[in-house]
TrEMBL record:
Pfam annotation, one family: ADK
Protein name: Adenylate kinase
Residues annotated as signal peptide: none
Source organism of the structure: Teladorsagia circumcincta (Brown stomach worm)
Family, similarity comment: Belongs to the adenylate kinase family.
Gene3D superfamilies, sorted: P-loop containing nucleotide triphosphate hydrolases
InterPro entries attached to this UniProt entry: Adenylat/UMP-CMP_kin, Adenylat_kinase_CS, P-loop_NTPase
Keyword list, A-Z: Kinase, Nucleotide-binding, Transferase
Gene Ontology BP term (one): nucleobase-containing compound metabolic process
GO molecular function, one term: nucleobase-containing compound kinase activity
The keyword Transferase belongs to this UniProt entry's keyword annotation: yes
UniProt lineage: Eukaryota, Metazoa, Ecdysozoa, Nematoda, Chromadorea
Length: 132
């Protein structure tokens, strides 16, 4: 992850599932998951094992704007990514910068987005769940 690569599917899914189950037990009625799924297979497995997505929001932002925001994210607390809505109501609890917000890693993450994450946009658009 610190090198700009994706965390393995099973690890991410287990962490999300554990956190969601804990919140459901406390009475949560919905979730907003920032930056997930990063790959089509993550979305497919999530919907098989946990919950079908109601909607997926995609913010289409030019790379130069993303780079600028990511380099200044710790100060501005902006997050630009794919956001999935589950259930009926959602809340955002926090947004923050990352230790690996540097130019080399950002370039690698943008390349990863193009190859792995961009197909997620097409996938959910075909399912008529994508909101731009």
């Amino acid at each position: 992850m610190e090198a700009g690569e994706l965390v393995p599917l099973e690890i991410v899914l287990d962490l999300i599932k554990e956190a969601m189950l804990k919140e459901v037990a406390k009475g949560s009625k919905g979730f907003l998951i920032d930056g997930y799924p990063r790959e089509v297979k993550q979305g497919e497995q999530f919907e098989r094992e946990i919950q079908e997505a109601k909607s997926v929001i995609y913010f289409d932002v030019p790379d130069d704007v993303l780079v600028k925001r990511l380099l200044h994210r710790a100060k501005t607390r902006l997050t630009v990514s794919i956001i999935m809505f589950f259930f009926d109501h959602s809340t955002i609890t926090s947004c923050s910068g990352r230790a690996d917000d540097n130019m080399d890693t950002i370039k690698k993450r943008l390349k990863t987005f193009t190859t792995a994450t961009a197909p997620v946009v097409d996938y959910y658009e075909k399912k008529k769940k994508l909101i731009r």
